[in-house]
Amino acid sequence: MATAPTTSSTRHTSARGDQHRLPAIDLSVQIGGRTLPNPLMTASGCAANGKELHRFFDVSQLGAFVTKSVMGGPRSGRGTPRMAETPSGMLNSIGLQGPGIHAFVKDDLRWLKSVGARAMVSIAGSSSGEYAEVAAVLRASDAFDAVVGVEVNISCPNVANRGLVFACDPLAAAKVIALVREKLPRDIPVLAKLSPDVTDIVEVARSCVKAGADGLVMINTLLGMVIDTDRLRPQLAGVTGGLSGPGIRPVAVRAIWQVHAAMLEGRLPTVPIVGVGGVRTGDDALQMVAAGASAVQVGTATFNDPRAPHRVLHELAHALATRGFPGIHDAIGIAHTRLDPQR
Amino acid sequence: MTEPVAGRIPQVAGELIATRRVGAYQHMTFVAPGIAELARPGQFVAFAVGGQTSANLLRRCFSIHRVSPSGTYGGTVEVVVAAKGPGTQWLAALRPHDGVDIVGPLGRAFPLPKEPVPCVLVGGGYGSAPLFWLATQLRERGCPVEMVLGAASEDRLFGVVEARRSAGAVTVTTDDGSVGTRGWVSDVLPEVIRRSGSAVVYGCGPMGMLESITRVAGAEGAVAQVAVEESMACGIGVCMTCVMPVTGNDGVTRMVRSCVEGPIFRGDRIRWESFESGWGRVPADAVGAPARGGH
After folding, report:
1. Chain A, window 79-118: residues with a beta carbon less than 8 angstroms from a chain B beta carbon
2. pLDDT tens-digit profile of A135-158?
3. ipTM score of the complex?
Protein backbone atom coordinates (compact mmCIF):
# COMPACT_ATOMS: atom_id res chain seq x y z
CA MET A 1 0.00 0.00 0.00
CA ALA A 2 1.54 3.28 -1.11
CA THR A 3 1.68 6.17 1.30
CA ALA A 4 2.29 9.82 0.54
CA PRO A 5 5.95 10.83 0.71
CA THR A 6 7.21 13.73 2.72
CA THR A 7 8.19 16.46 0.29
CA SER A 8 11.49 17.40 1.92
CA SER A 9 13.23 14.18 1.02
CA THR A 10 12.80 14.37 -2.71
CA ARG A 11 15.53 16.93 -3.33
CA HIS A 12 18.87 15.98 -4.85
CA THR A 13 21.38 14.71 -2.31
CA SER A 14 24.10 16.78 -3.95
CA ALA A 15 23.08 19.38 -1.40
CA ARG A 16 24.50 17.14 1.35
CA GLY A 17 27.31 19.32 2.77
CA ASP A 18 27.97 20.56 -0.72
CA GLN A 19 27.12 24.24 -0.78
CA HIS A 20 27.39 25.65 -4.25
CA ARG A 21 29.92 28.36 -3.48
CA LEU A 22 33.24 27.80 -1.80
CA PRO A 23 33.93 30.14 1.12
CA ALA A 24 36.30 33.03 0.43
CA ILE A 25 39.48 31.53 1.84
CA ASP A 26 42.72 30.73 0.06
CA LEU A 27 42.54 27.08 -0.92
CA SER A 28 45.45 27.13 -3.34
CA VAL A 29 48.30 24.73 -2.75
CA GLN A 30 51.80 24.57 -4.13
CA ILE A 31 53.11 21.18 -5.26
CA GLY A 32 56.59 21.36 -6.73
CA GLY A 33 56.52 24.07 -9.38
CA ARG A 34 52.74 23.96 -9.71
CA THR A 35 50.02 25.86 -7.96
CA LEU A 36 46.68 24.07 -7.76
CA PRO A 37 43.52 26.12 -7.12
CA ASN A 38 42.40 23.76 -4.36
CA PRO A 39 43.70 20.74 -2.44
CA LEU A 40 41.15 18.13 -3.53
CA MET A 41 42.06 15.27 -5.82
CA THR A 42 40.64 11.93 -6.80
CA ALA A 43 42.63 8.91 -5.62
CA SER A 44 44.23 6.78 -8.29
CA GLY A 45 42.25 3.68 -9.18
CA CYS A 46 39.05 4.98 -7.59
CA ALA A 47 37.98 7.36 -10.32
CA ALA A 48 38.92 5.67 -13.63
CA ASN A 49 40.16 8.34 -16.04
CA GLY A 50 37.55 11.04 -15.70
CA LYS A 51 34.67 10.42 -18.10
CA GLU A 52 32.69 8.31 -15.66
CA LEU A 53 32.75 10.79 -12.77
CA HIS A 54 32.22 13.75 -15.10
CA ARG A 55 28.65 12.47 -15.44
CA PHE A 56 28.25 13.39 -11.74
CA PHE A 57 30.31 16.55 -11.33
CA ASP A 58 32.64 18.72 -13.38
CA VAL A 59 36.06 17.10 -12.89
CA SER A 60 37.82 20.34 -13.84
CA GLN A 61 36.71 21.79 -10.49
CA LEU A 62 39.09 19.53 -8.59
CA GLY A 63 42.59 20.68 -7.73
CA ALA A 64 43.76 17.73 -9.79
CA PHE A 65 42.27 14.60 -11.30
CA VAL A 66 44.48 11.62 -10.48
CA THR A 67 44.18 8.93 -13.13
CA LYS A 68 44.29 5.15 -12.73
CA SER A 69 47.87 3.84 -12.75
CA VAL A 70 48.94 3.26 -16.33
CA MET A 71 51.70 0.91 -17.46
CA GLY A 72 53.55 0.50 -20.73
CA GLY A 73 51.20 -1.87 -22.51
CA PRO A 74 47.53 -2.75 -22.16
CA ARG A 75 46.68 -4.96 -19.17
CA SER A 76 43.61 -7.09 -18.67
CA GLY A 77 43.99 -7.14 -14.91
CA ARG A 78 43.12 -10.19 -12.88
CA GLY A 79 40.19 -12.53 -12.99
CA THR A 80 37.18 -12.21 -10.71
CA PRO A 81 36.18 -12.00 -7.88
CA ARG A 82 38.23 -8.84 -7.57
CA MET A 83 36.52 -7.33 -4.56
CA ALA A 84 35.34 -8.03 -1.03
CA GLU A 85 33.53 -5.62 1.24
CA THR A 86 35.18 -5.16 4.64
CA PRO A 87 34.12 -3.19 7.74
CA SER A 88 34.20 0.46 6.57
CA GLY A 89 36.11 -0.40 3.47
CA MET A 90 36.92 -2.94 0.84
CA LEU A 91 39.62 -5.26 -0.38
CA ASN A 92 40.47 -5.15 -4.08
CA SER A 93 42.64 -7.08 -6.43
CA ILE A 94 42.18 -5.45 -9.83
CA GLY A 95 45.70 -6.08 -11.10
CA LEU A 96 46.32 -2.66 -12.68
CA GLN A 97 43.89 -3.14 -15.56
CA GLY A 98 44.47 -0.41 -18.11
CA PRO A 99 44.87 0.59 -21.74
CA GLY A 100 48.63 1.18 -21.70
CA ILE A 101 50.31 4.57 -21.91
CA HIS A 102 49.97 5.00 -25.70
CA ALA A 103 46.19 4.56 -25.71
CA PHE A 104 45.97 6.57 -22.48
CA VAL A 105 47.61 9.69 -23.91
CA LYS A 106 45.60 9.47 -27.15
CA ASP A 107 42.22 9.00 -25.52
CA ASP A 108 42.04 9.69 -21.78
CA LEU A 109 44.60 12.48 -21.47
CA ARG A 110 43.22 14.29 -24.51
CA TRP A 111 39.75 14.04 -23.04
CA LEU A 112 40.89 15.39 -19.65
CA LYS A 113 42.50 18.30 -21.47
CA SER A 114 39.34 18.93 -23.50
CA VAL A 115 37.29 19.49 -20.34
CA GLY A 116 39.97 21.65 -18.74
CA ALA A 117 40.91 19.14 -16.03
CA ARG A 118 44.32 19.28 -14.37
CA ALA A 119 45.68 15.76 -14.77
CA MET A 120 47.87 14.12 -12.17
CA VAL A 121 48.94 11.01 -14.06
CA SER A 122 49.61 7.91 -12.01
CA ILE A 123 52.20 5.64 -13.59
CA ALA A 124 53.30 2.11 -12.78
CA GLY A 125 55.75 -0.45 -14.08
CA SER A 126 56.93 -3.95 -13.44
CA SER A 127 60.53 -2.74 -13.71
CA SER A 128 62.15 0.63 -13.05
CA GLY A 129 62.81 0.87 -16.78
CA GLU A 130 59.10 0.55 -17.53
CA TYR A 131 58.30 3.50 -15.26
CA ALA A 132 60.84 5.61 -17.14
CA GLU A 133 59.46 4.53 -20.50
CA VAL A 134 55.89 5.38 -19.46
CA ALA A 135 57.04 8.81 -18.25
CA ALA A 136 58.84 9.42 -21.55
CA VAL A 137 55.78 8.57 -23.64
CA LEU A 138 53.66 10.83 -21.44
CA ARG A 139 56.19 13.66 -21.82
CA ALA A 140 56.11 13.33 -25.63
CA SER A 141 52.31 13.34 -25.89
CA ASP A 142 50.40 16.23 -27.44
CA ALA A 143 48.13 16.69 -24.41
CA PHE A 144 51.05 16.88 -21.97
CA ASP A 145 50.15 20.49 -21.15
CA ALA A 146 47.12 19.15 -19.23
CA VAL A 147 49.50 17.35 -16.85
CA VAL A 148 50.13 19.08 -13.51
CA GLY A 149 52.07 16.23 -11.96
CA VAL A 150 53.06 12.60 -12.13
CA GLU A 151 52.23 10.28 -9.28
CA VAL A 152 54.60 7.34 -9.25
CA ASN A 153 52.78 4.27 -7.97
CA ILE A 154 55.60 2.33 -6.39
CA SER A 155 53.31 0.78 -3.81
CA CYS A 156 50.50 -1.11 -5.51
CA PRO A 157 50.15 -4.42 -3.65
CA ASN A 158 48.48 -5.99 -6.67
CA VAL A 159 51.62 -7.02 -8.48
CA ALA A 160 52.61 -10.60 -9.20
CA ASN A 161 55.37 -10.69 -6.64
CA ARG A 162 53.66 -9.07 -3.69
CA GLY A 163 56.78 -9.18 -1.57
CA LEU A 164 58.64 -6.98 -4.03
CA VAL A 165 56.72 -3.71 -3.96
CA PHE A 166 59.23 -0.97 -4.85
CA ALA A 167 58.04 1.19 -1.95
CA CYS A 168 59.06 -1.48 0.56
CA ASP A 169 62.71 -0.99 -0.33
CA PRO A 170 64.21 2.52 -0.01
CA LEU A 171 66.85 1.84 -2.66
CA ALA A 172 64.43 0.36 -5.22
CA ALA A 173 62.02 3.25 -4.57
CA ALA A 174 64.78 5.82 -5.07
CA LYS A 175 65.86 4.24 -8.34
CA VAL A 176 62.35 4.43 -9.82
CA ILE A 177 61.87 8.04 -8.70
CA ALA A 178 65.25 9.14 -10.08
CA LEU A 179 64.57 7.51 -13.46
CA VAL A 180 61.13 9.09 -13.75
CA ARG A 181 62.41 12.51 -12.58
CA GLU A 182 65.00 12.41 -15.36
CA LYS A 183 62.34 11.93 -18.05
CA LEU A 184 60.15 14.85 -17.03
CA PRO A 185 60.64 18.64 -17.17
CA ARG A 186 61.53 20.31 -13.85
CA ASP A 187 58.23 22.16 -13.61
CA ILE A 188 56.27 18.90 -13.55
CA PRO A 189 56.18 17.65 -9.96
CA VAL A 190 56.97 14.00 -9.41
CA LEU A 191 55.17 12.48 -6.41
CA ALA A 192 55.99 9.15 -4.83
CA LYS A 193 53.01 7.12 -3.60
CA LEU A 194 54.07 5.21 -0.52
CA SER A 195 52.96 2.00 1.11
CA PRO A 196 52.06 1.83 4.80
CA ASP A 197 53.21 -1.80 4.84
CA VAL A 198 56.78 -0.91 5.85
CA THR A 199 58.69 -0.84 9.09
CA ASP A 200 59.79 2.79 8.76
CA ILE A 201 57.87 4.94 6.29
CA VAL A 202 60.10 7.94 7.07
CA GLU A 203 63.11 6.11 5.67
CA VAL A 204 61.31 5.32 2.39
CA ALA A 205 60.02 8.90 2.20
CA ARG A 206 63.52 10.33 2.70
CA SER A 207 64.92 8.03 0.04
CA CYS A 208 62.28 9.18 -2.46
CA VAL A 209 62.75 12.89 -1.73
CA LYS A 210 66.52 12.58 -2.02
CA ALA A 211 66.03 10.87 -5.39
CA GLY A 212 64.07 13.88 -6.64
CA ALA A 213 60.45 13.43 -5.52
CA ASP A 214 58.73 16.82 -5.26
CA GLY A 215 56.01 15.42 -3.04
CA LEU A 216 54.78 12.32 -1.23
CA VAL A 217 51.39 10.67 -1.52
CA MET A 218 50.41 8.67 1.56
CA ILE A 219 49.06 6.03 1.72
CA ASN A 220 48.39 3.27 -0.77
CA THR A 221 46.25 0.32 0.31
CA LEU A 222 47.33 -2.16 2.96
CA LEU A 223 47.79 -5.76 1.94
CA GLY A 224 44.90 -7.81 3.27
CA MET A 225 42.92 -10.98 2.81
CA VAL A 226 39.34 -12.23 3.20
CA ILE A 227 38.18 -15.85 3.34
CA ASP A 228 34.83 -16.74 1.78
CA THR A 229 33.26 -18.81 4.56
CA ASP A 230 30.75 -20.55 2.26
CA ARG A 231 33.45 -21.98 0.03
CA LEU A 232 36.24 -21.79 2.65
CA ARG A 233 38.68 -20.36 0.16
CA PRO A 234 40.15 -16.90 -0.46
CA GLN A 235 37.34 -14.59 -1.56
CA LEU A 236 39.51 -12.82 -4.15
CA ALA A 237 40.77 -14.64 -7.22
CA GLY A 238 44.07 -12.89 -6.56
CA VAL A 239 44.08 -14.34 -3.00
CA THR A 240 45.34 -11.14 -1.32
CA GLY A 241 44.30 -7.58 -2.11
CA GLY A 242 44.60 -3.94 -1.15
CA LEU A 243 42.54 -2.74 1.81
CA SER A 244 41.04 0.75 1.48
CA GLY A 245 38.26 2.90 2.85
CA PRO A 246 37.53 4.73 6.13
CA GLY A 247 38.72 1.65 8.06
CA ILE A 248 42.33 2.50 7.15
CA ARG A 249 42.12 6.28 7.72
CA PRO A 250 43.89 6.23 11.10
CA VAL A 251 46.81 4.44 9.44
CA ALA A 252 47.02 7.18 6.82
CA VAL A 253 46.81 9.97 9.39
CA ARG A 254 49.57 8.28 11.38
CA ALA A 255 51.84 7.96 8.31
CA ILE A 256 51.30 11.62 7.38
CA TRP A 257 51.98 12.63 10.98
CA GLN A 258 55.23 10.65 11.19
CA VAL A 259 56.64 11.97 7.91
CA HIS A 260 55.59 15.57 8.58
CA ALA A 261 57.14 15.35 12.06
CA ALA A 262 60.37 14.08 10.52
CA MET A 263 60.34 17.08 8.15
CA LEU A 264 59.84 19.47 11.07
CA GLU A 265 62.80 17.81 12.82
CA GLY A 266 64.93 18.20 9.69
CA ARG A 267 65.28 14.46 9.18
CA LEU A 268 64.24 14.85 5.55
CA PRO A 269 63.73 17.82 3.24
CA THR A 270 60.29 19.43 3.45
CA VAL A 271 58.07 18.59 0.48
CA PRO A 272 54.28 18.66 0.22
CA ILE A 273 52.41 15.59 1.44
CA VAL A 274 49.22 14.52 -0.30
CA GLY A 275 47.02 12.63 2.16
CA VAL A 276 44.96 9.68 1.00
CA GLY A 277 43.31 6.73 2.70
CA GLY A 278 39.73 6.55 3.91
CA VAL A 279 38.68 10.17 3.45
CA ARG A 280 34.88 10.30 3.34
CA THR A 281 34.06 13.77 4.72
CA GLY A 282 35.56 17.24 4.99
CA ASP A 283 36.32 16.47 8.60
CA ASP A 284 38.37 13.44 7.55
CA ALA A 285 40.27 15.63 5.08
CA LEU A 286 40.89 18.21 7.80
CA GLN A 287 42.47 15.51 9.99
CA MET A 288 45.00 14.86 7.25
CA VAL A 289 45.69 18.55 6.73
CA ALA A 290 46.22 19.05 10.46
CA ALA A 291 48.57 16.06 10.50
CA GLY A 292 50.64 17.62 7.72
CA ALA A 293 49.01 17.08 4.35
CA SER A 294 48.90 19.96 1.84
CA ALA A 295 46.36 18.22 -0.34
CA VAL A 296 43.90 15.37 0.05
CA GLN A 297 42.65 12.62 -2.22
CA VAL A 298 39.26 10.93 -2.04
CA GLY A 299 39.19 7.29 -3.12
CA THR A 300 36.93 4.49 -1.94
CA ALA A 301 34.30 6.96 -0.68
CA THR A 302 33.61 7.69 -4.36
CA PHE A 303 32.15 4.18 -4.73
CA ASN A 304 29.63 5.09 -2.02
CA ASP A 305 28.99 8.64 -3.25
CA PRO A 306 29.98 9.46 -6.85
CA ARG A 307 30.16 13.15 -5.93
CA ALA A 308 32.41 12.54 -2.91
CA PRO A 309 35.55 14.34 -4.22
CA HIS A 310 33.53 17.44 -5.05
CA ARG A 311 31.53 17.24 -1.81
CA VAL A 312 34.62 16.78 0.37
CA LEU A 313 36.22 19.84 -1.26
CA HIS A 314 33.26 21.95 -0.19
CA GLU A 315 33.08 20.37 3.26
CA LEU A 316 36.80 20.90 3.84
CA ALA A 317 36.63 24.51 2.72
CA HIS A 318 33.74 25.16 5.08
CA ALA A 319 35.48 23.31 7.91
CA LEU A 320 38.54 25.55 7.46
CA ALA A 321 36.46 28.73 7.18
CA THR A 322 34.38 27.84 10.24
CA ARG A 323 37.57 27.49 12.29
CA GLY A 324 38.76 30.90 11.14
CA PHE A 325 41.63 29.85 8.89
CA PRO A 326 42.35 32.46 6.20
CA GLY A 327 43.69 29.69 3.98
CA ILE A 328 44.50 26.01 3.96
CA HIS A 329 48.16 26.82 4.32
CA ASP A 330 47.54 28.03 7.86
CA ALA A 331 46.15 24.65 8.88
CA ILE A 332 48.76 22.33 7.37
CA GLY A 333 50.44 20.40 10.16
CA ILE A 334 48.79 22.51 12.86
CA ALA A 335 48.22 19.51 15.11
CA HIS A 336 51.99 19.26 15.59
CA THR A 337 51.92 22.62 17.41
CA ARG A 338 49.17 21.55 19.78
CA LEU A 339 50.72 18.69 21.72
CA ASP A 340 50.59 18.64 25.49
CA PRO A 341 53.97 20.06 26.56
CA GLN A 342 53.81 17.80 29.64
CA ARG A 343 53.38 14.60 27.62
CA MET B 1 30.98 4.87 -23.89
CA THR B 2 29.37 8.05 -25.22
CA GLU B 3 30.88 11.40 -24.32
CA PRO B 4 29.79 12.27 -20.80
CA VAL B 5 27.76 15.33 -19.98
CA ALA B 6 28.56 16.93 -16.64
CA GLY B 7 26.01 16.10 -13.97
CA ARG B 8 23.79 14.07 -16.23
CA ILE B 9 23.16 11.00 -14.07
CA PRO B 10 20.75 11.69 -11.21
CA GLN B 11 21.77 10.97 -7.63
CA VAL B 12 18.69 11.49 -5.52
CA ALA B 13 17.36 11.12 -2.00
CA GLY B 14 14.79 8.44 -2.71
CA GLU B 15 11.88 7.77 -0.41
CA LEU B 16 10.28 4.39 0.06
CA ILE B 17 6.53 4.61 -0.46
CA ALA B 18 5.53 0.96 -0.76
CA THR B 19 7.08 -2.34 0.21
CA ARG B 20 5.65 -5.83 0.20
CA ARG B 21 6.84 -9.38 0.52
CA VAL B 22 6.55 -11.47 -2.66
CA GLY B 23 7.60 -15.05 -2.05
CA ALA B 24 11.25 -15.00 -1.04
CA TYR B 25 11.65 -11.38 -2.16
CA GLN B 26 10.78 -7.80 -1.22
CA HIS B 27 9.12 -5.67 -3.90
CA MET B 28 9.95 -2.03 -3.11
CA THR B 29 8.71 1.24 -4.66
CA PHE B 30 10.71 4.44 -4.24
CA VAL B 31 9.94 8.01 -5.17
CA ALA B 32 13.11 8.88 -7.08
CA PRO B 33 12.65 12.09 -9.03
CA GLY B 34 14.62 12.29 -12.25
CA ILE B 35 15.45 8.61 -12.49
CA ALA B 36 12.14 7.22 -13.74
CA GLU B 37 11.99 9.71 -16.58
CA LEU B 38 15.32 8.57 -18.02
CA ALA B 39 15.20 4.82 -17.37
CA ARG B 40 14.72 2.08 -19.96
CA PRO B 41 14.25 -1.69 -19.44
CA GLY B 42 17.49 -3.47 -18.56
CA GLN B 43 19.04 -0.49 -16.78
CA PHE B 44 19.71 -0.58 -13.06
CA VAL B 45 19.86 1.62 -9.99
CA ALA B 46 22.53 1.67 -7.27
CA PHE B 47 21.53 2.12 -3.63
CA ALA B 48 23.74 3.33 -0.80
CA VAL B 49 22.91 1.16 2.22
CA GLY B 50 22.99 1.74 5.95
CA GLY B 51 22.76 5.53 6.01
CA GLN B 52 25.39 8.27 5.73
CA THR B 53 27.83 6.79 8.25
CA SER B 54 27.31 3.19 7.16
CA ALA B 55 30.21 0.77 7.43
CA ASN B 56 28.91 -0.91 4.25
CA LEU B 57 30.25 1.48 1.66
CA LEU B 58 29.63 -0.39 -1.53
CA ARG B 59 26.54 0.32 -3.60
CA ARG B 60 23.92 -2.39 -4.03
CA CYS B 61 22.74 -2.55 -7.62
CA PHE B 62 19.30 -3.71 -8.74
CA SER B 63 17.75 -4.10 -12.12
CA ILE B 64 14.78 -1.73 -12.45
CA HIS B 65 11.53 -3.69 -12.24
CA ARG B 66 9.28 -0.88 -13.36
CA VAL B 67 9.08 2.91 -13.44
CA SER B 68 6.20 5.37 -13.29
CA PRO B 69 7.54 8.71 -14.49
CA SER B 70 4.37 10.62 -13.62
CA GLY B 71 3.18 9.11 -10.36
CA THR B 72 1.13 11.10 -7.87
CA TYR B 73 4.24 11.92 -5.87
CA GLY B 74 6.71 12.26 -8.73
CA GLY B 75 8.51 9.54 -10.62
CA THR B 76 8.79 6.18 -8.93
CA VAL B 77 11.24 3.34 -9.40
CA GLU B 78 10.50 -0.25 -8.36
CA VAL B 79 13.02 -2.96 -7.55
CA VAL B 80 12.90 -6.53 -6.29
CA VAL B 81 15.33 -7.30 -3.48
CA ALA B 82 16.56 -10.66 -2.22
CA ALA B 83 17.85 -10.07 1.31
CA LYS B 84 20.94 -12.24 1.47
CA GLY B 85 23.61 -10.02 3.06
CA PRO B 86 23.82 -7.08 5.48
CA GLY B 87 23.24 -4.46 2.76
CA THR B 88 20.23 -6.08 1.15
CA GLN B 89 18.80 -6.95 4.60
CA TRP B 90 19.00 -3.27 5.57
CA LEU B 91 17.32 -2.28 2.34
CA ALA B 92 14.56 -4.88 2.60
CA ALA B 93 13.83 -3.79 6.19
CA LEU B 94 13.18 -0.14 5.24
CA ARG B 95 9.75 1.19 6.16
CA PRO B 96 7.60 3.64 4.19
CA HIS B 97 8.99 7.21 4.32
CA ASP B 98 12.51 5.97 4.99
CA GLY B 99 15.09 7.63 2.78
CA VAL B 100 17.82 6.06 0.68
CA ASP B 101 20.38 7.54 -1.70
CA ILE B 102 19.78 6.26 -5.23
CA VAL B 103 21.94 6.69 -8.34
CA GLY B 104 20.60 5.84 -11.76
CA PRO B 105 19.57 4.91 -14.29
CA LEU B 106 22.85 3.10 -14.97
CA GLY B 107 24.09 0.73 -17.65
CA ARG B 108 22.85 -0.10 -21.12
CA ALA B 109 19.23 -1.03 -21.77
CA PHE B 110 17.97 -4.10 -23.64
CA PRO B 111 18.27 -3.38 -27.37
CA LEU B 112 14.84 -3.59 -29.02
CA PRO B 113 14.36 -5.17 -32.45
CA LYS B 114 13.66 -2.80 -35.33
CA GLU B 115 11.08 -5.19 -36.82
CA PRO B 116 8.03 -6.61 -34.99
CA VAL B 117 9.62 -10.07 -34.57
CA PRO B 118 8.48 -12.64 -31.97
CA CYS B 119 10.55 -12.66 -28.76
CA VAL B 120 11.00 -14.95 -25.76
CA LEU B 121 11.79 -13.45 -22.37
CA VAL B 122 13.45 -15.79 -19.87
CA GLY B 123 13.82 -14.99 -16.18
CA GLY B 124 15.52 -16.99 -13.45
CA GLY B 125 14.32 -16.31 -9.89
CA TYR B 126 13.93 -12.58 -9.29
CA GLY B 127 15.99 -12.04 -12.43
CA SER B 128 12.60 -11.80 -14.11
CA ALA B 129 12.11 -8.36 -12.49
CA PRO B 130 12.91 -6.19 -15.58
CA LEU B 131 11.22 -8.46 -18.10
CA PHE B 132 7.59 -7.37 -17.66
CA TRP B 133 8.42 -3.80 -18.47
CA LEU B 134 10.45 -5.02 -21.43
CA ALA B 135 7.51 -7.19 -22.56
CA THR B 136 5.21 -4.17 -22.55
CA GLN B 137 7.63 -2.17 -24.69
CA LEU B 138 8.11 -5.05 -27.12
CA ARG B 139 4.37 -5.54 -27.53
CA GLU B 140 3.93 -1.82 -28.15
CA ARG B 141 6.26 -2.33 -31.11
CA GLY B 142 4.16 -5.20 -32.36
CA CYS B 143 6.47 -8.00 -31.18
CA PRO B 144 4.60 -11.14 -30.02
CA VAL B 145 6.03 -12.02 -26.58
CA GLU B 146 6.29 -15.32 -24.71
CA MET B 147 7.81 -15.68 -21.27
CA VAL B 148 9.62 -18.48 -19.48
CA LEU B 149 10.08 -18.16 -15.72
CA GLY B 150 12.20 -20.58 -13.77
CA ALA B 151 13.42 -20.96 -10.19
CA ALA B 152 14.53 -23.55 -7.68
CA SER B 153 11.09 -23.62 -6.06
CA GLU B 154 7.73 -21.83 -6.18
CA ASP B 155 8.62 -19.19 -3.57
CA ARG B 156 11.64 -18.17 -5.64
CA LEU B 157 9.65 -17.41 -8.76
CA PHE B 158 8.85 -13.75 -9.29
CA GLY B 159 5.97 -12.30 -11.28
CA VAL B 160 4.07 -15.30 -12.63
CA VAL B 161 0.73 -13.43 -12.44
CA GLU B 162 2.23 -10.32 -13.98
CA ALA B 163 3.78 -12.46 -16.72
CA ARG B 164 0.35 -13.71 -17.72
CA ARG B 165 -0.72 -10.08 -18.21
CA SER B 166 2.48 -9.08 -20.03
CA ALA B 167 2.98 -11.99 -22.41
CA GLY B 168 0.97 -14.02 -24.89
CA ALA B 169 2.06 -17.29 -23.27
CA VAL B 170 3.94 -18.17 -20.09
CA THR B 171 5.87 -21.33 -19.24
CA VAL B 172 6.97 -21.96 -15.67
CA THR B 173 9.70 -24.36 -14.54
CA THR B 174 10.93 -25.25 -11.05
CA ASP B 175 13.86 -27.46 -10.10
CA ASP B 176 11.71 -29.29 -7.54
CA GLY B 177 8.55 -29.39 -9.64
CA SER B 178 6.59 -27.49 -6.94
CA VAL B 179 4.88 -25.60 -9.78
CA GLY B 180 5.05 -25.80 -13.58
CA THR B 181 7.39 -28.14 -15.41
CA ARG B 182 10.03 -29.86 -13.29
CA GLY B 183 13.44 -28.89 -14.63
CA TRP B 184 15.30 -25.89 -15.98
CA VAL B 185 14.28 -23.13 -18.33
CA SER B 186 16.69 -24.55 -20.90
CA ASP B 187 14.63 -27.77 -20.99
CA VAL B 188 11.54 -25.97 -22.27
CA LEU B 189 13.19 -23.13 -24.18
CA PRO B 190 13.87 -24.94 -27.50
CA GLU B 191 10.17 -25.79 -27.89
CA VAL B 192 9.10 -22.24 -26.93
CA ILE B 193 11.46 -20.67 -29.47
CA ARG B 194 10.31 -23.05 -32.20
CA ARG B 195 6.62 -22.68 -31.46
CA SER B 196 6.78 -18.89 -31.36
CA GLY B 197 9.28 -18.53 -34.20
CA SER B 198 11.23 -16.17 -31.97
CA ALA B 199 14.17 -14.23 -33.37
CA VAL B 200 15.35 -12.80 -30.04
CA VAL B 201 15.67 -14.40 -26.60
CA TYR B 202 16.06 -11.99 -23.70
CA GLY B 203 17.44 -13.43 -20.48
CA CYS B 204 18.04 -12.29 -16.95
CA GLY B 205 19.16 -14.55 -14.11
CA PRO B 206 22.17 -16.47 -12.80
CA MET B 207 25.21 -16.81 -15.06
CA GLY B 208 24.79 -20.55 -15.61
CA MET B 209 21.24 -19.99 -16.83
CA LEU B 210 22.33 -17.19 -19.15
CA GLU B 211 24.94 -19.47 -20.67
CA SER B 212 22.35 -22.16 -21.37
CA ILE B 213 19.92 -19.59 -22.82
CA THR B 214 22.68 -18.44 -25.14
CA ARG B 215 23.45 -22.00 -26.21
CA VAL B 216 19.79 -22.88 -26.86
CA ALA B 217 19.10 -19.60 -28.70
CA GLY B 218 22.13 -20.16 -30.93
CA ALA B 219 21.03 -23.71 -31.75
CA GLU B 220 17.56 -22.45 -32.68
CA GLY B 221 18.86 -19.58 -34.82
CA ALA B 222 17.84 -16.82 -32.40
CA VAL B 223 19.92 -14.02 -30.90
CA ALA B 224 20.33 -14.01 -27.10
CA GLN B 225 20.46 -10.69 -25.23
CA VAL B 226 21.33 -11.33 -21.60
CA ALA B 227 21.57 -9.18 -18.47
CA VAL B 228 24.58 -10.35 -16.47
CA GLU B 229 25.01 -10.50 -12.72
CA GLU B 230 28.54 -9.66 -11.64
CA SER B 231 29.21 -8.18 -8.24
CA MET B 232 29.79 -4.43 -8.40
CA ALA B 233 31.28 -2.03 -5.89
CA CYS B 234 30.24 1.26 -7.51
CA GLY B 235 27.92 0.61 -10.46
CA ILE B 236 29.21 3.71 -12.26
CA GLY B 237 32.33 2.42 -14.03
CA VAL B 238 35.12 3.51 -11.71
CA CYS B 239 35.98 0.51 -9.51
CA MET B 240 36.82 -2.08 -12.20
CA THR B 241 35.53 -4.99 -10.13
CA CYS B 242 32.58 -6.12 -12.29
CA VAL B 243 34.60 -7.04 -15.36
CA MET B 244 34.08 -10.07 -17.58
CA PRO B 245 35.59 -11.29 -20.84
CA VAL B 246 33.47 -10.15 -23.78
CA THR B 247 34.33 -10.27 -27.48
CA GLY B 248 33.75 -7.01 -29.36
CA ASN B 249 32.65 -6.31 -32.95
CA ASP B 250 36.32 -6.47 -33.92
CA GLY B 251 36.57 -10.09 -32.75
CA VAL B 252 38.87 -9.10 -29.89
CA THR B 253 38.16 -10.15 -26.29
CA ARG B 254 38.52 -7.58 -23.54
CA MET B 255 37.80 -7.55 -19.82
CA VAL B 256 34.87 -5.12 -19.91
CA ARG B 257 32.92 -3.53 -17.07
CA SER B 258 29.46 -5.01 -16.84
CA CYS B 259 28.13 -1.80 -15.22
CA VAL B 260 28.87 0.60 -18.10
CA GLU B 261 29.42 -1.66 -21.10
CA GLY B 262 26.64 -3.99 -19.88
CA PRO B 263 24.75 -5.24 -18.04
CA ILE B 264 23.12 -6.30 -21.31
CA PHE B 265 25.38 -8.22 -23.67
CA ARG B 266 24.76 -10.37 -26.71
CA GLY B 267 25.03 -13.82 -25.20
CA ASP B 268 27.32 -15.11 -27.94
CA ARG B 269 29.87 -12.38 -27.13
CA ILE B 270 30.47 -13.55 -23.57
CA ARG B 271 33.35 -15.99 -23.05
CA TRP B 272 31.33 -18.44 -20.98
CA GLU B 273 34.14 -20.97 -20.72
CA SER B 274 35.96 -18.48 -18.47
CA PHE B 275 33.46 -18.92 -15.64
CA GLU B 276 33.89 -21.83 -13.27
CA SER B 277 33.03 -22.42 -9.59
CA GLY B 278 32.61 -18.72 -8.86
CA TRP B 279 35.80 -17.63 -10.59
CA GLY B 280 35.92 -15.55 -13.75
CA ARG B 281 39.22 -16.16 -15.48
CA VAL B 282 41.00 -13.96 -18.01
CA PRO B 283 41.15 -15.81 -21.38
CA ALA B 284 44.72 -16.15 -22.67
CA ASP B 285 43.79 -14.26 -25.85
CA ALA B 286 42.19 -11.28 -24.05
CA VAL B 287 43.80 -7.88 -24.59
CA GLY B 288 46.61 -7.46 -22.08
CA ALA B 289 46.19 -10.96 -20.64
CA PRO B 290 48.91 -11.89 -18.17
CA ALA B 291 51.79 -14.07 -19.16
CA ARG B 292 51.91 -17.39 -17.29
CA GLY B 293 52.24 -16.68 -13.58
CA GLY B 294 49.76 -13.84 -13.56
CA HIS B 295 49.84 -10.11 -13.01
Report:
1. 79-83, 85, 87-90, 92, 94-98, 100
2. 999 999 999 999 999 999 998 766
3. 0.94
